[in-house]
Amino acid sequence: MSDEFRRYTRRDVIQQIDAIDLMTQKTLGKVANISEYGIMILTHIHINNDAIYQCELIFPYTYPFRSPFIIGLQEMWTEPVTTGKVSYAGFRIIDIESTDRLRISEWANQSLR
User: Fold this and answer.
1) Three-state secondary structure along 77-101?
2) How far apart are CA 30 and CA 45, in angstroms?
3) pLDDT in tens, 42-65
4) In whole angstroms, what separates CA 90 from the centre of its chain?
5) What are phi and psi of 55, to 5 degrees?
6) CA–CA separation, 18 vs 31, rounded Å?
7) Which residues fall within 8 angstroms of residue 40, CB to CB, at 6 or more apart?
8) Which of 3, 33, 99, 102 has the fewest Cβ atoms surrounding its Cβ within 10 A?
9) Structure letter (DSSP) for residue 37
């Protein structure tokens, strides 16, 4: 992943946000952190290099977002956790409604205040 995308403010996720693969209707994983242009997911399934996913992010009721987001993701890297049963996967957000991107950006930047 290029440094250009790593420079955006990331928001660590405290409560569970599920990423649902809309093609299979199965959970891709749990969101670990998110920024305006990228997302890191903790996953128990194999993620292919450079794979493209269409996902729905399901937010808990305590989050400022009441409705799920539909996003397009492209895998940028995957790294197994030391246990080997799960991996962290970094994705670039390649498709998102502009209002949802703005909401994520504002929310991520709140962590700096």
Assistant:
1) EEEECCCCCCEEEEEEEEEECHHHH
2) 11
3) 999 999 999 999 999 988 887 777
4) 8
5) -125, 160
6) 6
7) 10, 31, 32, 33, 34, 88, 89, 90, 91
8) 3
9) S
Sequence-ordered strand ranges (E) for the chain: 11-12, 18-21, 26-34, 38-43, 52-58, 69-80, 87-96
Q: Are 41 and 14 in contact (CB under 8 A)?
A: no
Specify the amino acid at residue 17.
I
Count of C-beta atoms within a 10 Å radius of residue 112 = 7
Using pLDDT thresholds of 50, 70 and 90, give the confidence band for residue 8: low
